[in-house]
Each structure stands twice: as structure tokens, then as C-alpha cells.
Amino acid sequence: MDENLKKIIPFALVYKKDIILNVVYNILYALFSTLSFIALIPMLDVLFKDAEKVIDKPVYTSFWDITSYANDYLYFYITKLTNESGPQYALLLVVAIIIVTFLLKNLFNYLGLNHLMLVKNGVLRDLRNKMFDKIISLPISYYSEKRKGDIMARMLGDVNEVRNSFFSILELIVKEPMTIIFTIGAMVFISFKLTLFVFIFIPISGFVISKIGKTLKAKSKKAQDENGQLISVVEETLGGLKVVKSYNAEGSFTEKFNFSIERLYQLTNSIGRKNNLSSPMSEFMGIVVIAILLWYGGNMVLVETFTDGSPILEGSKFIAYMGLAYNILTPAKSISKASYQVKTGLAAAERVFDVLEVENTITDKENAIVKTSFENHIKIENINFRYENENVLNSFSLEILKGKTVALVGQSGSGKSTIANLLTRFYDVQEGTIKIDGTDIKDMTLTSLRDLMGLVTQDSILFNDSIKNNILLGKPNATDEEIIEALKIANAYEFVKDLPNGIETNIGDAGGKLSGGQKQRLSIARAVLKNPPIMILDEATSALDTESEKFVQIALENMMQNRTSVVIAHRLSTIQKADKIVVMQKGEIVEQGTHDELLALSGTYSKLVMMQSFE
């Protein structure tokens, strides 16, 4: 059994009841599909005045004779009805039987499809939920290596492909095979000799179809990978549209998109050709066999006779037999089509499980501590950290006391933002420890660790929603009054109150309707509302103009009052009041002290200050 098939089974077993009912209704569909053709025999017999005369009422003997008992009883009733009321009433009876069998066949088909739909949609929902839980729980490091567009393609496109294609397997193993089995059973009952041709046809057809579909799974996976690439190009283009337009790079991105879509076009055409070939190929082979049956069976009706002169095969049975033979073609076509779809579904499932089975390296330890308060200090002790091969931090140690503001300064690449990433456990240190009140942060639950911290980043990350809902991320049950108070502390209420809908105003995609300074003040308000004991500000003002920086700086000072703050700063004007300034270079501390103490040293900090102009 295919590995991905084994992995999908637990998701399907949740809907065991619907699967069982689907199987039961499919079996009943297959049975009545066969009976609907067998019911043609008595109708044709009545029409051609060739109905078997059964005068004596048959007696039921055992279950194994039920077929001949049902047949005899039907002809007994036809004989009786013909003698008593005339042949038109017998014809009405057999026509009614045909209508009922076709009605039941289609009813069971509908019920089977209904339960299959519940399984498909249920598994689609569960897979998407599981996929979203996984992608939101994976560490930040995972997404520095992967394209977001490809992850989106896997979650939306590939999971949908699993739903559409994979569950064809229920038809592949139940509905269509049972239809073929029941049909062949009826055909053997009518004429064993003729049925031998059908047994020759099925394995030949299966062999040809499997040859055509051999490379389908690999090509389907390539097409799905290319689809992920395509979505990545679109996502990156829309995300950086201002840069694309300002550099007149539309042509370059269009070329990249066209190249990707051309590859997808070639792959989907190749897959489509093979998919399209399966149905006509199986139908043509079926028609060839039916042509042979018509010739050979026709001889049995017209030429070959028993010793008493009666034909070896009656005309009515031969017509019904041909209907049954044609009835095999539809499930044979469906099986070939479903086998192709399953291959596509398995390729999609492989891409889905590639993500679901990624090991999450940043998780809670067993029996992790839930820490609800911050009492004394944060201690960073001899940590080494590298993103790839080279250390970004070397034997780095620092103590941050409760209620104090510690600023990290230094040139780009000195490791300042890495400290923020490690404190919040977006990444884990390779050597050394980070402790809060003497407890290693790896021994704490991620939720309780991050509950102790508020983060304001250089890029104001806002969502396409109202101002209120963006700020509520910090405290989902906060009142409007608390939101407004947080906005006032963040120096943001002065512009929010003038908006058409106040805090209910939608701010657009990534806050696109607001200025940089306004977005940053909303980010600060979000952190203020959360009211954590430890605040981490990662270059919170570096992307702002001077006027916006003044507003944001006031907001930051309001927020940092009576709070432990780690400030990563590019603009040194924003951290002059810090209790301790730590100067970093190539992942090491070269100086630390207050603003005045460091200036007096005339060292690295003094040079950095000289390079920047103060207001």
C-alpha cells in the first residue's frame, strides 16, 4: 500500500459511518444496475410472445435457489396475468418492474454519493485545520527557507486535490468493481460461452491503462510544485508592488510569471493527454469486444440450435446480455479514470504530508513550567548562536534587571535583533542559557513565556481589519474604554478619533490606509493593551521620519514607564535615557554603561553618536 494512502486513512476513519453507508449503497446500486438490464428479458419475452409459460405456482425451497425461484415466480405471474387480463397487462407489469429497478438504482447512487460527499468535505476540513495548526506552530526559521506561496498552494490547492482525486478510491474499490462483478455474474448466468470474451477484455484493458498512467504521479507532483512556485511569484509581486513599479520591473516579474505558467501549461497538458486517453481507450476496447459479442452471439441466436431446433440463445436474453456487456464499459471507464485521479491525489497528499510531518524544533518540554509573573531579572549567560554556519553571537552574557531599560546598539549585523529573536524563542540558542528569574526559558511553556513579553518591531505588522480588532490581539476581552486608553498612551488616539468610524475603521491590507508613524503607534497601542511586564522594541522608530519619530518616541516613553524594556536601537537619540546601553560588535559586547558614561569613554559608542546628528 502507498505510504501516503496509509497516512490519509486515519483522517477518513473519522467518517467511518459515512464510508460504511457509502459502501452499502454502492453495492445496492451495483445490484440494481444489473437487475435493471435483467428486467428487460421478461419485457422482451412478452413483446415477442416468447414468454416462458409457468402454469404451476413455484415453491420456495432454499436460499441457494432464490434466483430460479424469483425467475419462475415472475413468469408464473406473467402467464397468469396474460391468461386472465391479456398481454398488455403483463407488459405493464414488466415495464413497472423496470421503472422500479431504475428508480432504486439511481436512489442508491444518490445516497452513496451523498455519504461520499460528507467524507470528502469532512476530510478536506480536517486536513486544512491540521495544516493551518501546523503552519502556525512551525518556528520562524522554517519560513526563512520556504516560499510562503508554496505553503499556500499546499494548503489550498493540494488539500483540495486530495479531496477531489483521492476519494475516487472508494469508487475504485467498491462501486465500479461491484457493478462489474454483478454484471458478469448475470452474464455468466445467461451465457457462459459469451462471457469468456469479457474475461479476455478486462485484463488487456487494465494492462493498457496502467501503462498509460505509469508516469502520472510523478508528473502530477511536478505540476503541483510548479503551482506552488506560481503562487509564490504572485504573492511576492503583490507584496512588493511599490518596489516593482518604482524600478519599472514589471517586465521582469511578468517574464518570471510567464515562464512559470508556461511550465505549468506544458505539464498539465501532458497530464491531461494521458487522463483524456484513458476513457476513450477503455471505451474503444469495450466496443471491439461488443462487436465480437454481436457477431458470435448473433450466430448463437440465428444459426446454432439445440437438437429440438430451438436457438442456443434466445433473442430477448441476447439483447439483455448486450445491454449488460455495455453496462461494463461505464464502470471500466470510471475505474481507469479513478485510477488516474488517485495517482494525482497521492502526489498532492505527498506534498501535504511533507508539511504535516516537519519536525517542530521549538516546542514545550514535557512538564514545562507555566510562569505567570516576572520578579527579578533576565539573565543571558554565555550564549552562542548561529543561523547557518557562522556564529552571530559569541559567548554573549547580559543581565537585565526588573524595571530597567536596556538598549542594544551597534552596526547592522552585530546581533542586536538576534537577541530579540532568542528572548521570544523564535529561535533557540545552540549553547548557553537565557533565564527569567532563574528559570531557563526552554523549561517554560511557550505561551507563558510570550505572555510575559510585548514585541514592537521595525515593520508594523497589521492586518486587514478594524483598528479595534488589530489592537485586541494583545487582550481579546478588552473593553472599548481600555482600547482607547491604550491608544492615548501610544499617542495614537489623536488621529484615530478623527477617522470616519473611529476604532471601527478598517485600515486596509497591512494597514495600507495609514502612514508609517500611524501604523507604528497602533503597534505600540497593541503592546500597551497587552500590558506585559517585559517589552521588546526592535528598532521601533528606525523606519520613521523625524516628525513621526517624535510622536512614536513619546508613545514609547509612556509605555516603558515602570516596565522592563529591551530596546534595540539604530537611532541613538531614542535611547539616551536608558538605564544601560550595551554596544555590540560582531556578536560581542564591546562597551556598556549609561549614555554619559559611554560618551566619556570616547570609544565605539562615542563614534556612533558622532556619526548621527541629534535634534
TrEMBL record:
Main location: membrane
Membrane disposition: Multi-pass membrane protein
Ranges where the ABC transmembrane type-1 domain occurs: 20-344
KW NAD (keyword) present: no
Transmembrane region(s): 27-48, 89-108, 180-209
GO molecular function, one term: ATP binding
Disulfide bond is among the record's keywords: no
ABC transporter domain ranges (all copies): 378-611
SUPFAM superfamilies assigned: ABC transporter transmembrane region (SSF90123), P-loop containing nucleoside triphosphate hydrolases (SSF52540)
A Pfam family reported for this protein in Swiss-Prot or TrEMBL: ABC_membrane
Keywords: ATP-binding, Membrane, Nucleotide-binding, Transmembrane, Transmembrane helix
Localization terms from the record: Cell membrane
The name this protein goes by in its record: ABC transporter ATP-binding protein
